[in-house]
Amino acid sequence: MNSSEKKKQKEAFKAAYINKIEEVSGDCLAESSVLKQYQALAELVMDDITTQWAKSNTKYNKHQNKQVYFFSIEFLIGRLLKSYINNLGLEDIVTESLKELGLDFTAIQEQESDPGLGNGGLGRLMACYLDSSAAMDMPAHGNGIRYKYGLFEQRIINGEQVEVADNWLRNGYPFEIRKPDKAVIIKFGGTIHSEKINGNLTFVHENYEPILAVPYDIPVKGYHNETVNSLRLWSAETLEDFDLPKFNQGQFLDAVRHKSEAESISQILYPNDNGFDGKLLRLKQEYFFVCAGLKRIVRRYKQFNNNSMDGFSQKICIHINDTHPAMCGPELMRILMDEEGFGWDDAWKMTVESISFTNHTVLPEALEKWPVSMMKSLLPRIYMIIEEINQRFTQEIYAKYPHDMERNYGLSIINNDQIHMASLAIVASHSINGVAELHSKILREETFKGFYQVFPERFHSVTNGVTPRRFLMNSNPDLKDLLNESIGTQWQGNLFELKRLLNYLNDPIFSDKFNAVKLSNKIRLAEHIKKHNNLIVDPASVFDIQVKRIHAYKRQLLDALHVLYLYNQLKENPHLEIAPRTFIFAGKAAPGYYYAKQIIRLINAIAKMVNSDKTLNEKIRVVFLENFNVSLAEIIYPAANVSEQISTAGKEASGTGNMKFMMNGAITLGTMDGANIEIAEAVGPTNIVTFGLSSDEVSQYEKYGGYRSIDIYEKDPRIQQVMHQLIDGTLGFGLNFQNIYDSLLLHNDTYFVLKDFNAYVDAQNRVDQLYRNERTWTKMSMTNIAHSGMFSSDRSILDYQREIWKII
Ligand code: GPW
Fold it and tell me: Which positions bear N6-(pyridoxal phosphate)lysine (predicted)?
C-alpha cells in the first residue's frame, strides 16, 4: 500500500470510528469514556468480520466441504480485539489512526474482559486450534458452553489465594451473536418406554424436564485470509421465562426457582484442572452442550443435503477434547436411531466413523467415572444406549478372547456401577490420540493397554502446538519486527522458516538487537510487577518463570524449595557469585484443592522473607503474580529467560506453556516429560537444561517401590534445613507448612520432589553458569526460537488433517 492510499484508508477509518463512538455513546469523541471507545472499536471490527463470516458460511454450505467440530467443555480464547485487528491486516491503520486521534490504544484494549472459559492448557489448546484452522482456511468450529461466570479471578490477600467471581459479561460482550432462532430443547430426567409405532419399536421419552439451549456464536477470523469460522457457545434458559401456571397460582417462588435451576447449567465453569469431581450439575453440562451441538450439526447437514443423512460421516468430523464430551457417542446413536430412523448397525458405523478422541491426561484422579445411578436417572435413554454399546463390545471381546475373563472385565465400559468415560470414548471413536510422543506411548503401554491390543489401528499421536499469531506476533511485536527485518516474513506463514535465524547466531549486531528486545520485554514485565506487587525487580536479572495451574505433579514446590535453599546459601555466604535472579510464579489453585493453596501460601511467604532481607544485596527476588490468565501470559512469556517445566516425569501429558516460552526465546529448564522431550530433540542437548528421573524410573518406583524419601532427607543437610524451615517459623510468625512437610516425609513424597532435588540444584547451577556467558546464552535463546516451528499449532492441525480427519 502506498502512502497516499494508506492516508485515505486512515481518514476513512477515523470518520467511521468517530461515527461509531457517537452511535454507541451519544457522546462526541472528546467526551467519550475509554469503555465506549473500546465498544465502538469492537463494533467497527465486528462489522468487517460479519460480512466475511456470512460469505464463509455460504461457501461451506454450497461446497459441502468436510467440516470439523471441536467439542470441548472449555475454550480459553483470551481477548479478541487485537487479534481480530491483526488478522484483518488493519494493525497499522488502526494503531496510527488512534494515535492521530490522541487515543490510548493499550488502554482501549484493556477495557476488554478476558473470557475465562477454561482452566488452563486443555481450553487454551482449543483456542489455538481454532486460530490455526482459520489461518489455514480449514472449516473447523468450536462447540462448548457460554458460562455466565468463567474461571474465578484470583486475588492474593495476606499471601493467600482468595477467589472472586468472574463476571466477564458485566458490560456485555461485543463479539458474540445470540441466535435464538437456532435454540434447541434438551431433555433431562423422566422415563423411557418403548412402543410399536407402525410396526417399529420406538422409544418414547416422557415426564422429562425440558431446558432450552440458546447458541451464541463468536467469529474465528483467519489470519490475512477470508476465512471466518465459528465458536458456538450454548447458554441454558427456561422455555418460558416463568412457569405461567405456577405463577398464576401465586407460586411465584417455585416459578423463579425453576428458572434459576435451568439457568444454573451454564452458570459457572468448574474450576478443576486435571481433576474429576463427579457433580450432577457437571454431568448436566456435559450432556447439555453435546446434545445441543449434535442436534444443530445434524439439522444443518440435512438442510444442505436434500434432507438426507447420506454421506454424513464422510463430511462431518466430531472431535472430542478429552472425555467431557464423550456422550457424543451415545447421543449421536440416539439421534440417528430415534430421530432419523437408522438401525443399530448403520448408526454405529456412522458414529464411529465421525468421532475421534484426544486424551489429555493419565492422572487417575482426572479420569471421569460417572455412577450408573446418576446417569440412569438424569439421562435414561443415553444410559440404555451406553449399556447396549457395552453389551455388544464386551461380547465381541469375549468371542475373541474366550478364556481371558480378566481382560473382558478390564475393558468393560461399565464397571463397579460406574461408567468409564475414557473407555466409552475409545470404543465409540475411530481414532484416539495422545498429545505428545511420550504421552501417547504411556497410553498404549499403560493407561489403555487393553484397548490398544484390541484396536491397535485406532491409536495415534499428535504433539500439541500453540498459535504463533497470539504468542509471538501479537504479544512480542518487537521480536516480530526484528525477525521480519532480518530473515524476511515467510516465517509468518510457515513457522519452520524460523530456522533462518540460525544464520545469525554469530552476528554481533543482530545479537545486540535481539538482547535489546528481550530487555524491553523484561522492563514491561517489571513495570507490571511494580504496579501490582509494589516491588522493584531488576530487568537485568535472570527472569526465571514458572506459570501454570498449581498442582502437586507440576511441582511448583520443587522450584520453591530451591529458592529457599539458595536463600540459605546466600545467608551463609553473602558474597556468593551468582547472576541475580528474579523467580516469578503465577497460577491459580482449584478452590477446593487445599494442598495447592498451601503451595501458594508458601511461595508468598518465601517471597516476603526474601524480598525484605537487605543482606542479600538484591541477588534474588521472588514474585507471585496474581490472577494468571491469557492476558497476563502475553506479558510474561516474552520477558522470560528461564522456562520452568519441572513436572514429575510421565505426569504432564504435553504442556503447552513450554512451547510459548520457547517461541519467545526462553531456555527450558525441564524434566524429560511431555513435550519437553520433543523440545530437547528439536534444539539439541546444548540448548536446553534437563534433569531428574525419567518416566520409566518413576513408573518402576511406583510399581515396585524402592523409594524412601526419608533416606534422601537423612543424607542431605541442605534438604534437612529447608524442611525444618517449613515448620519452624522461619517463614513468618505462626506460618507452619506441616502438611507440605508431611507430604514429603510422612507420605513418602508421591511426586519425587526430594528425589529430584539434588539434580535440580545442579541443573540450576548450570543455568547460572550459562547465563553468565552472555554470548552463549544469546545463542541458546536464538536457537530455541529457530527450532520452535514444530510447536506451532499450524503443524498440529496439519497432523490432525492427515492422520485423524483424513482431509488432506
Ligand atoms: F484432565 N489438561 C488440562 F486431561 O489443562 F482433562 N486440564 C485438564 O483437565 C486435563 C488436561 C484433563 C492439560 C494437560 O495437563 C497438559 O499436559 C496438556 O498440555 C493440555 O491439557 C493440552 O493437551
Answer: 660
Do residues 380 and 455 touch, judged by C-beta distance below 8 A? Answer: no
Q: Are 222 and 135 in contact (CB under 8 A)?
A: yes
For residue 507 the three cell numbers come to 552476528
Q: Give the max Cα distance, the chain.
A: 91
pLDDT for position 83 = 98
> Which of 72, 74, 273, 360 has most ligand 1 atoms within 8 Å of its beta carbon, as the pocket-test mutant?
360
- Which pLDDT score is estimated for 249? 64
Determine the distance separating the centroid of ligand 1 and the alpha carbon of 361, expressed in angstroms: 6
Cα 46 from Cα 149, distance rounded (Å)? 23
Residue nearest to atom 8 of ligand 1 (CA): 274
- Index of the ligand 1 atom closest to the CA of residue 363: 1
ipTM: 0.98
Name the pTM for this structure.
0.97
Cα–Cα distances in Å, from 340 out to 25, 182, 309, 355, 389?
A: 50, 19, 8, 18, 19
Span 468-694+756-791: which CATH code? Answer: 3.40.50.2000
Q: What is the mean pLDDT of the chain?
A: 96
Taking the CA atoms of 274, 278, 284 and 287 in sequence, report the sign of the dihedral they define: positive
Query: Residue with the nearest Cα to atom 1 of ligand 1?
Result: 274
Q: Which three cell numbers stand for residue 383?
A: 444410559
- Dig out the grid coordinates for 749 from the structure: 513424597
> Dihedral, CA atoms, 118, 292, 55, 471, nearest 10 degrees?
10
The domain defined by 64-79+114-464+799-804 folds into Rossmann fold (3.40.50)
Chain segment 177-203, per-residue pLDDT in tens: 999 999 999 999 999 999 988 888 889
- What distance in Å separates the CA atoms of residue 443 and residue 432, rounded to the nearest whole number? 10
Cα(702)–Cα(362) distance, rounded to whole angstroms? 14
Pick from 132, 687, 700, 218: nearest CA to 462: 132
Distance (Å, whole) CA 466 – CA 456: 28
Ligand 1: centre distance to CA 322 (Å): 8
- Cβ 291 vs Cβ 385: under 8 Å: no
Q: Is the dihedral of CA 13, 14, 17, 22 positive or negative?
A: negative
Strand order in the sheet with 414-415: 369-371, 418-420, 414-415
Task: List, for the chain, all residue ranges whose pLDDT scores fall below the cut of 50.
Answer: none
Q: What is the per-residue pLDDT for 400?
A: 86
Question: In the chain, where does the domain assigned CATH 3.40.50.2000 lie?
Answer: 64-79+114-464+799-804, 468-694+756-791
